[in-house]
Design a protein that fits this description.
Elements: H1 2-24, H2 28-37, H3 40-46, H4 52-55, H5 65-78, H6 81-110, E1 114-122, E2 126-127, E3 130-135, H7 146-152, H8 173-182, H9 196-203, H10 207-210, E4 211-216, E5 219-220, E6 226-231, E7 234-239, E8 250-251, E9 260-265, E10 287-292, H11 300-303, E11 305-307, E12 311-323, H12 347-363, H13 379-395, H14 397-400, E13 408-420, H15 424-434, H16 438-444, E14 445-464, H17 468-482, H18 487-535, H19 541-554
Length: 555
């Protein structure tokens, strides 16, 4: 009897569940709410994406089927097929325009554009630039010795390969006499060791002899305020260069008289005689000047300007601080090369390093103006290898020696003006002061005046024209304009997808649980059938019929 009672109670509970299914639907109240939340028309109704609710109308879930049907009929009349079609076309057009404009903005962003801003900044003081001065004549003729002519006479084009004077009839009498005396190599002549670096140091023009006076900001200066550097012009001199233990000179005023003013004698009488168009002799007379930052080495033969004798040249300069962008917006570099010749990267440093490596690799030596610890080239290596290799490098430099612009650099704009010296009234005074003739003063003496035009500097800076914030702002504006959406609308779509996936998974799990519980119920109630058949002999027919009905419901 206990088994019968348990089976009857279980059958009653199952019958009640069946009645509930008929009134609430197959999923019950909670399942119905979940289905409504994951319904696409319901999502379209509450979504912030404009137009979606007009394409997918939602009637809602009423308490009775009649009210729901009436509401759906009214909604269906309100949203006719033609109207829904027009809204669909409008939404698709908005999505298309959004994709078109967004792709254009994205393509512009990936082109990495930049803009250049220019600004003038007033400063209380400015570091005075480095000023490098070179005589256009590299070697003094009167300082050549017999040993110099023996080793470097052919390089200087003063002697031929047989150490003889070429075309002596073209030489001036005093030049011919000098060469005849110094180039007399008897059979017993023994040459001494020769070094191009020592030769350039000794035979190059001496600034102490060239300088007639020097002033910086009205104060006296001398040749000791200049340091010796070697360039393609030989021995040169740098004012206000980077030196250990010395502070860089600054200026707190602009205009002439507040910078560097020097008077030089270029010593044309010491210029090498010209036998033809050669590399080591100059047709010009004067000096070559470069105004540059202390962070970059001089590159006078390409970046310098000429100053002629017989004139006072005024150079008004302005400092420019340039900032470039690295790739992909620009092509600047900021790190020095691995050779370590120069601590700061610059275009001139890169060029000098490239030339040095090329000459060392091809000639196993370096020229006097090149950095490093390789041995200096001999005059024969200069003539046969170094100078031809350097000319070849300049011809193919675009492919074998690429020097990019540094990300930060300082340069100086220049405005030149000049007046003739000496004047007729000052010529006699200068003749007495320097014990030189007026013609010598006109042919050899010059004045160089370098100063800041104003006590300010100019900044030229490259900036990113279009960054991520601008891209997101433009795309967000297009989304709001064409489809009335925002980033939260995208989150709504993800949230809807999450709800759909969650509901599907819950449905799948509930079905598996129902199947398992149904199998367990059938196995539990199997003995009841046999028991009822046994009891049916002792009970009345109506009770047996009732039990049979309950057993069918329960099992």
């Amino acid at each position: 009897m206990d088994l019968k009672e348990s089976c009857e109670s279980e059958a009653i509970r199952e019958s009640t569940s069946v009645v509930g299914m008929g009134s609430l639907g197959p999923l019950g109240p909670s399942s119905s709410g979940s289905s409504v939340s994951s319904s696409w028309p319901a999502f379209a109704q509450r979504s912030t994406l404009h137009g979606l609710r007009h394409i997918f109308p939602y009637g809602g879930g009423g308490s009775s089927s009649s009210s729901s049907s009436a509401h759906s009929a009214r909604r269906g009349g309100r949203f006719s097929a033609a109207r829904r079609l027009l809204w669909t076309a409008a939404l698709l057009a908005g999505v298309f325009l959004l994709a078109l404009e967004s792709s254009e903005r994205l393509a512009y962003f990936l082109s990495y554009p930049h803009v250049t801003s220019v600004d003038a900044v007033v400063s209380g003081s400015l570091v005075f630039p480095a000023v490098t001065v070179c005589n256009l004549n590299a070697y003094r003729f009167s300082r050549l010795t017999r040993n110099d002519l023996y080793h470097a006479g052919e390089l200087l084009e003063l002697l031929d390969v047989h150490l003889q004077i070429p075309e002596p009839h073209l030489a001036e009498p005093h030049v011919l006499a000098f060469l005849t005396e110094r180039a007399n190599f008897s059979a017993g002549y023994r040459p001494k060791p020769f070094s191009m670096h020592e030769f350039s140091e000794r035979v190059g023009h001496d600034l102490q002899e060239m300088m007639l006076y020097c002033r910086f900001q009205g104060q006296e200066c001398s040749h000791q305020d200049f340091s010796t550097v070697f360039t393609r012009y030989g021995k040169c001199y740098m004012f206000n260069g980077p030196e250990e233990g010395k502070n860089l000179r600054t200026t707190m005023k602009g205009g002439t008289g507040n910078g560097l003013e020097i008077m030089l004698d270029i010593q044309q009488d010491e210029y090498l005689p010209v036998w033809g168009e050669t590399e080591e002799t100059a047709f010009e007379a004067g000096i070559r000047v470069q105004i540059h930052s202390q962070a970059e080495p001089p590159f006078v033969h390409e970046l310098g300007f000429g100053v002629a004798p017989g004139f006072q040249t005024f150079v008004a300069t302005q400092e420019q601080r340039l900032t470039y962008l690295p790739p992909p917006w620009g092509e600047c570099v900021s790190q020095a090369q691995e050779s370590g010749f120069f601590p700061v990267y610059s275009v001139t440093a890169c060029r000098i390093e490239c030339e040095t490596r090329y000459i060392v690799e091809n000639c196993n030596c370096r020229m006097v103006h090149m950095p490093g610890d390789s041995p200096y080239c001999t005059p024969e290596q200069y003539k046969d290898c170094a100078e031809p290799a350097l000319a070849a490098l300049s011809a193919e430099e675009s492919s074998s020696c690429i020097c990019r612009t540094p990300c930060n650099m300082t340069r100086y704009n220049k405005e030149l003006s000049m007046v003739k010296i000496p004047s007729k009234t000052s010529a006699r005074y200068l003749e007495k002061k320097f014990n030189r003739s007026e013609k010598y003063i006109t042919d050899n003496i010059l004045v160089l005046d370098v100063f800041f035009e104003a006590l300010n500097y100019e900044t030229i800076e490259q900036k990113k024209a279009y960054e991520v914030a601008g891209l997101l702002g433009d795309i967000g504006g297009q989304m709001g304009l064409f489809i009335g959406a925002s980033i939260l609308t995208i989150l709504e779509l993800f949230d809807y997808a999450y709800e759909v996936v969650k509901e599907r998974l819950l449905d799948l799990l509930s079905r598996e649980e129902e199947e398992e519980s149904h199998g367990e119920d059938v196995s539990t109630c199997d003995p009841v059938v046999n028991h009822s058949e046994t009891i049916s002999h002792t009970v009345s027919v109506p009770l047996q019929t009732t039990l049979g009905t309950l057993e069918e419901i329960a099992c």
